[in-house]
Specification:
Endonuclease Iii, domain 2; 3 domains; five-stranded antiparallel beta sheet; 10% strand; disordered N terminus
């Protein structure tokens, strides 16, 4: 994996897995094999099942379900899982991870065993092994290339882990793949399915992303999302779109090296919110009578996340008090001036990588093609991220995150809550001052005048702890996903 990485899964898998003590395998609860109930043990997630010595069933294929199925853990474990998803343990030890969390190694491992059923190191190995299994099934990559792509240090290490977790060598697993598993080979590209296992309104999410796509960096064309990426110092492009296989997105990666595919899959899942607690949010929000029709209309809707946390946060800051179209133009100019050029010709006018925190921290504010106050805000933010003063992985609680962001001059409640929602994945973030939300809430409630930010904040208390889900449903209920001008941090 690359040394530079910029996250826990939903509970949709929880209690749908079961270990069969007589066979040593774990299955989906609905597996047609139907083992004797007295021999079945419930499993919280795939990592717990594999850590207990069970291997995945070859009939129902529980290893092809999305993610590893972690339920909502305590905050410290959730933060550690996001770091693991970012590849932290590919370069560091469990002791270093524990130190970053603020715990001893022993404490962190105990928490993982209590809430996950497996150690942090085992979770990292399971993630790599699951991706390797999918690449063995779906791609034409050699076993050695699969090992490199999945983040293993060698084919021998991958073989050892695959035998431990799946019961077979990589070569045997490839021989067992089914006819429909393998995807057609593309000239110069790698195709891979990304499972989500739920109703996903791809077209609606693509529309949201299209309106905010940074020119030169990302684009939405023919219902597919394309963007430039940097893999171990080499430029490339990834395309994400719907798959013919139900319950999946499909990725097409044009890369100079396959050494960071695990990271690209993680970023794709984050961008489309595939690991969010959609089912729990839907169940909770349906209790609010005025909001319920919006939830029923699009039950799989979720808050879009971020491919790159810093990039999305800057895009939000650029959007303060300007139209969506205007912010998109300014963000494109920022990338054109300060982003690294992509020399390889790419489709859809993709010519730039978005500038890094270090690049924007070094840039003079007067070169950012926007009002001085906003460019200074972005400069301060870039310095804070580059120095580590602001952690975009979302370790802190929502209140702590919002308060920390607002210590930077120029960042107010609207920006802080939207960054918390899209960048850090806080499900309860809610930018109540947003004019689009207020207009949508006014129409939903049948009010005679536009509700105020205070009124909407009070109303939103009944939607906690899933206010971000309520926000995206309200935004999407508008004819346009965002009004021409919002009340956005007037500092």
């Amino acid at each position: 994996m690359c040394p530079n990485f910029r996250g826990a899964s939903g509970h949709t898998l929880a209690m749908r897995l079961q270990g069969v003590v007589t066979t040593g395998i774990y299955c989906r609860a609905e597996c047609s094999a139907r083992p004797d109930p007295s021999n079945v043990r419930p499993m919280r997630n795939a990592a717990e099942a594999m850590a207990a010595g069970y291997r995945p069933c070859l009939l129902c294929r529980p290893d092809r379900l999305p993610g590893l199925g972690f339920d909502q853990p305590v905050a410290e474990v959730a933060y550690a899982l996001r770091l693991i998803a970012d590849g932290y343990l590919d370069q560091a030890t469990t002791a270093a991870l524990a130190e970053r969390i603020g715990y001893s190694t022993r404490q962190l491992v105990r928490l993982f065993k209590q809430h996950i059923g497996a150690s942090p190191d085992f979770v990292a190995r399971a993630r790599r092994a699951h991706l390797a299994r999918r690449l063995l099934d779906e791609s034409a990559l050699s076993v050695g290339e699969v090992a490199f792509a999945a983040g293993f240090s060698s084919a021998r290490q991958m073989s050892r882990v695959m035998r431990e977790l799946f019961g077979f060598s990589p070569t045997v697993l490839r021989a067992k793949r089914r006819r429909g598993d393998r995807l057609p080979v593309l000239d110069g590209g790698l195709r891979l399915r990304i499972p989500h296992g739920c109703s996903l309104p791809v077209a609606r999410l693509m529309g949201y992303l299209a309106a905010r796509a940074i020119p030169g960096v990302e684009a939405v064309a023919d219902g597919h999302y394309l963007r430039t990426i940097n893999t171990c110092g080499y430029p490339g492009v990834i395309e994400l779109g719907p798959s013919r296989s139900a319950g999946h997105l499909e990725a097409v990666m044009h890369l100079a090296t396959f050494g960071s595919i695990l990271d690209q899959v993680r970023r794709a899942r984050a961008l489309f919110g595939l690991d969010q607690e959609v089912a729990a949010a839907r169940e909770h929000l349906l209790r609010d009578r005025p909001l319920a029709p919006l939830i029923r209309r699009e039950p799989g809707l979720r808050m879009p996340g971020a491919w790159d946390r810093f990039e999305t946060a800057v895009r939000i800051l650029v959007g303060q008090q300007v139209s969506v179209a205007g912010a998109t133009t300014v963000a494109g100019a920022l990338a054109e001036r300060h982003g690294a050029p992509v020399e390889t010709p790419l489709p859809a006018g993709l010519t730039r990588l978005f500038p890094s925190p270090e690049a924007l921290a070094a840039a003079r504010p007067d070169t950012m093609a926007m009002p001085r106050a906003r460019s200074e805000t972005i400069s301060r933010f870039a310095h804070a991220v580059a120095s580590g003063a602001v952690d975009l992985c979302g370790r802190a609680s929502l209140d702590e995150t919002v308060a920390e962001l607002q210590t930077l001059k120029g960042i107010g409640p609207w920006s802080a809550h939207l960054i918390a929602a899209r960048v850090m994945g806080h499900p309860d973030a809610f930018p109540a001052s947003d004019l689009g939300l207020r207009r949508a809430a006014t129409r939903m409630l049948g009010a005679h005048k536009t509700v105020t930010a205070r009124e909407l904040e009070l109303r939103s208390q009944r939607w906690r702890p899933f206010r971000a889900f309520a926000a995206i449903h309200l935004w999407m209920s508008e004819t346009h996903t965002d009004p021409p001008l919002d009340e956005r941090d007037p500092e």
